[in-house]
Amino acid sequence: MEEVSYLDWNNSIEILNKAYESGLFVLIIGPKGTGKTSLVRDFAKNKNVNLESINFSLRTRESHLIGTKTLNEGTVSFDEGLLIKSMREGDMLYLDEINSAEADVLLRLDEALDDRRQIALKESTGEVVRAKENWFVVATINPLTHSGTKELPPQLLSRFPVRIRLEYPPEDVELEIVKKHVSGHESEITQAIKLANTLRQAAAVEELFYSPSLRETIAFGKLLEKGMSAKEAAMIVFGNVYTQWGNIEYQKVSDIITSMFGN
Questions:
Q1: Structural domain for 225, as ranges
Q2: Which of 20, 43, 119, 193 is in Cβ range 3.0-4.6 Å of 112 for a Cys bridge?
Q3: What is the pTM of this model?
Q4: CA torsion sign, 248 to 252 to 253 to 254?
Q5: Is the pLDDT at 250 greater than 90, yes or no?
């Protein structure tokens, strides 16, 4: 399938461009599945810059950023991590879900992101690595309601003075996004987007445990393309996931789907 370009519905590309030209690091804030990664990838492609990505979790260690010592045929060498590589090359560095990382990892990252843009390789030779002038860093964070996320320390937040808020798009825009991946079935997809927004709103006020993403409305459209009925596709994509939180939660969503798509 051909690569689909990002639909820039809230002027994010222009903000990224201005930040890039100004040498200011960017923080993108928003829930999962709102297109944060697609936005960053499309921006890097349009700028024709090399993109290095780190997806943060509780298992991310300093060594992923900085590097590790290796022993090969009796010789000790140091394999540099993505943070160091990107600084040396002046690449664009994408720090995905940065507020899922542990405090010690964030501290080390903070060292590189301050105004000097340098870091001492204490794990290796002690060399001070200085970032190339065009080094550019974009990070994303999920709202604190998402599991595994933590509040970012204020000093680290301040390293990203340009902040983009990326929420779920308006329904007409979401339809255009899905239509980039799926042909036809416009009325059913429109209904599925209304369903997704109903579930998102319920999750936002903690009436439900899960908020469906843009990926799910795209998946719904793809199942329709393969001949599945709208009701069955809605149950498979939007309904069944709620079984994880028990039958009452599942039944609540199942009733909403039946009211929208019939029996």
A1: 171-261
A2: 119
A3: 0.82
A4: positive
A5: yes
